[in-house]
Amino acid sequence: MDERTCNLVWPVLLFAEERLLLEGDKPLRLGSRAFDILVFLIERAGEVVGKEELIARVWPQFSSKRPT
After folding, report:
1. What is the per-residue pLDDT for 1?
2. DSSP state, 64?
3. Helices and strands counted in the chain (H then E)
4. Is 40 exposed, middle or buried (0-12, 13-18, 19+ CB in 10 A)?
5. What is the rounded CA–CA span in Å between residue 67 and residue 41?
6. Which of 6, 21, 30, 54 is the most buried (most CB within 10 A)?
7. What distance in Å separates the CA atoms of residue 46 and residue 60, rounded to the nearest whole number?
8. Which tens digits make up the pLDDT trace of 4-33?
9. Are the CB atoms for 56 and 32 separated by under 8 Å?
10. Are the CB atoms for 19 and 7 separated by under 8 Å?
11. Among 68, 12, 10, which Cα is nearest to 43's?
12. Can you tell me the distance from the alpha carbon of 49 to that of 41, in angstroms, rounded to the nearest whole number?
């Protein structure tokens, strides 16, 4: 494995900075908003994420909160 940051979400690999999701060596297509939600939830794994916090991160233009 190289030095890129990678999250293993079995059975796929997620490279957030490159916006790349792989199943084995096959890239998976995922819409940009869905990708943003997936990355955010992985970053917060094991935590409860509130609706307002998710909206602030993924849809900042519709939120009264600042993204964290």
Report:
1. 42
2. S
3. 2, 4
4. middle
5. 14
6. 21
7. 23
8. 676 766 788 889 999 999 998 899 999 999
9. no
10. no
11. 68
12. 8
∠ CA 41-43-35, rounded to 5°: 55
**Structure tokens given for 57:** 């991160």
Which runs of E-coded beta strand occur in 1-68?
A: 7-9, 12-15, 20-23, 26-27
Q: Which two tokens stand for residue 22?
A: 């792989």
Distance CA 16, CA 41 (A): 12
Handedness of CA 67, 19, 21, 3 (dihedral sign): negative
d(CA 33, CA 65): 18
Under DSSP, is residue 24 helix (H, G, I), strand (E, B) or coil? Answer: coil
H/E run at residue 53: helix 51-58
